[in-house]
């Protein structure tokens, strides 16, 4: 039995962690529980994540929650090309991981929720506001990617994985990224990676 257990369905935020585990070639046990699942309310799960949210991991007794923290931890623990080579690179990976959560996740998720609902129930004002809120951070990322093919330079790292995993919701929502061609090209390359596809398929 694997020493690493990942809790949560790959159709939600745990996708990020499954993608990381696949990139690292880790052996793991999946608990593909829904964020609405009764399993999250159990006392046993509350010991893993008292917030009763997903994802969370149990890594041979070490329990951790919050998807970005989990991915940064796994990259640091297992090393390889996904882990930045030095302290500055590691700090930048954390910076971009925090950035995508504060600048991108809320508006892109708000737009996705509208798209998931019946067309006659969608709120155009919410959708327009969400798109407006995405323009500035997408321009920031587009300008940054004009300097290098990946966020930290020439190679795909945990920074790319964390940011692309959040922006995968933009593709699910069919948000037009043509105004940010560097972002569009980079995102297609990231989400086209075999590990990203395997994680998405569960």
For the biggest β-sheet, the strand order reads 2-1-3-4
Measured between the Cα atoms of the first and last residue, the distance is 19 Å
State the low-pLDDT regions, or none: none
Query: Strand-and-helix sequence, N→C?
Result: EHEHEEHHHHHH
User: What structural class do you assign from the helix and strand content?
Assistant: alpha+beta
Q: Characterize the main sheet.
A: 4 strands, mixed
In percent, how helical is the residue content? Answer: 55-70%
Compile the SSE list and pairings.
Blueprint: E1 4-7, H1 15-24, E2 28-31, H2 43-48, E3 56-59, E4 62-65, H3 67-78, H4 87-116, H5 124-145, H6 158-172, H7 181-191, H8 194-200
Parallel strand pairs: 1-2
Antiparallel strand pairs: 1-3, 3-4
Helix pairs in contact: 1-3, 1-6, 1-8, 4-5, 4-6, 5-7
């Amino acid at each position: 039995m694997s020493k690493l257990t990942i809790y949560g369905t790959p159709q939600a935020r745990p996708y990020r962690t499954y993608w990381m585990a696949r990139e690292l070639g880790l052996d793991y046990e999946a608990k593909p529980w829904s964020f609405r699942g009764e399993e999250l309310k159990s006392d046993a799960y509350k010991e893993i994540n008292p917030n009763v949210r997903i994802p969370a991991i149990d890594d041979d007794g070490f329990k951790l929650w919050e998807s970005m923290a989990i991915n940064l931890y796994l990259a640091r623990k297992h090393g390889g090309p996904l882990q930045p080579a030095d302290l500055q690179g590691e700090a930048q990976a954390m910076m971009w991981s925090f950035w995508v959560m504060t600048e991108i996740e809320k508006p892109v998720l708000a737009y996705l929720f509208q798209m998931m609902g019946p067309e006659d129930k969608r709120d155009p004002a919410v959708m327009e506001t969400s798109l407006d809120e995405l323009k500035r951070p997408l321009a920031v990322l587009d300008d940054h990617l004009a300097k290098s093919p990946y966020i930290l330079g020439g190679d795909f790292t945990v920074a790319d994985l964390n940011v692309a995993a959040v922006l995968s919701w933009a593709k699910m929502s069919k948000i037009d990224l043509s105004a940010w061609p560097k972002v569009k090209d980079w995102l297609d390359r990231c989400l086209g990676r075999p590990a990203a596809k395997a994680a998405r398929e569960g």
